[in-house]
Amino acid sequence: MQSAALAASRSFCDRGREMSEQEQADLRLMVARLRQEHADYDAAINAMIATGCEPLRIQRMKKKKLGIKDRITKIEDQIIPDIIA
Predict the structure, then answer these.
(1) What is the DSSP string of the chain?
(2) I need a labelling partner for 17 at 20 to 30 A (CA). Which of 27, 32, 40, 80 fits?
(3) In this structure, are residues 83 and 18 in contact, taking their beta carbons and an 8 Å threshold?
(4) Domain-by-domain residue ranges, the chain?
(5) Per-residue model confidence (pLDDT) at position 17
(6) Would you tell me how many other CB atoms lie within 10 Å of the CB of residue 44?
(7) Residue range 23-53, pLDDT digits in tens
């Protein structure tokens, strides 16, 4: 399903048209999955800190978590386009 959402996001950008309801639903589903993955990384990072894990490993996990957040933001921007006032 992830590839379908990516295809939907690409098709929106490529064609310069409004997204269909199905494309928006696919992207919303992908955002929900990414949010869950982001929360999972957060829990894992907190567990790593609590157990005294190596700082480098924790930093790597934080970088992955930030990458997920960036992906969420990009997809949300496609779902809700900027409104020029």
Answers:
(1) -HHHHHHHHHHHHHHTSPPPHHHHHHHHHHHHHHHHHHHHHHHHHHHHHHTT--HHHHHHHHHHHHHHHHHHHHHHHHHS-----
(2) 32
(3) no
(4) 2-79
(5) 60
(6) 15
(7) 999 999 999 999 999 999 999 999 999 999 9
d(CA 69, CA 50): 23
CA–CA separation, 19 vs 37, rounded Å?
Answer: 25
| Amino acid (1-letter code) at residue 51 | T
Locate 76 and state its tokens: 């949300």
In this prediction the pTM is: 0.72
